[in-house]
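#structure-requests
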Amino acid sequence: MIDSNPPRKITIVGLGLIGGSIAAGLRLRSPESEICGVDFPERLNAEGAKRHTHSQVSVRDPRALQVALDASDLCVLCAPVGVIVELIPQALQAADAVTDCGSTKRRIMESVAACSRASRFVAGHPMAGAAGGSLAEARADLFEGRRWIVCEQQSDKDAHGKVSWLIEQLGAVEMSMSADEHDKALALTSHTPQVLASVLLTLAKDQGALATGGPAFERCTQGAGANEAMWRDIFSSNADEVAAALRSFSARLSDVADGLEREDLEPVLALLAAAGMSESDL
């Protein structure tokens, strides 16, 4: 569903990797769009912010922020979940349509439900990123061919159309899910892997094995640690699903460990065989 009257004035709140890449992609693919970047002054003064956006507004300037939101055909909230929840009422009251790029969806949708213009909000989450997550890493092709999850069940067609237009402009592939489905799935495919990577890295540190790490270890531990503020928000807003995923993971590991202790290789070999995926699994 592509908007026949696409947004021309787009405000991006949060110019990290995701927000900066959205701005960079729009500058390249939709040169007629007017892009306003909103962030703290120190980030707005960075070269990337000025290169990727037409105008910049500090979050410390409430009047300028309100003017930017009032003029927005589409506002994109690219911030930690807790910050998104705080910004939604103001953004929805002012901008024509609002979307977000938050890593969890249920808490965000609960806050939207209390707003009078809830139908103008389209929850979103691009499946793209990098270990650092900084504006310096932003690039126009970050979303090319990547899935962009949309939870549009309460959204009206016009608002959804504006977000679909954004996704298409950035070269991403739209995928529809409910907020519950999103948080359950991302607990397995994003949030739990963050924990597992960190566990493996700390175990190797504790046992003095880091120097022996090869490509497999590097792949498995890529992104371990990361931004505490961002991950605190993710885990607090999806604690139940992450806990359930970790319990399932632990149970499967225990089966393998029990088999190895008995010198029974069948559980681990069966697990490796089951993990061989075809395109139909994706």
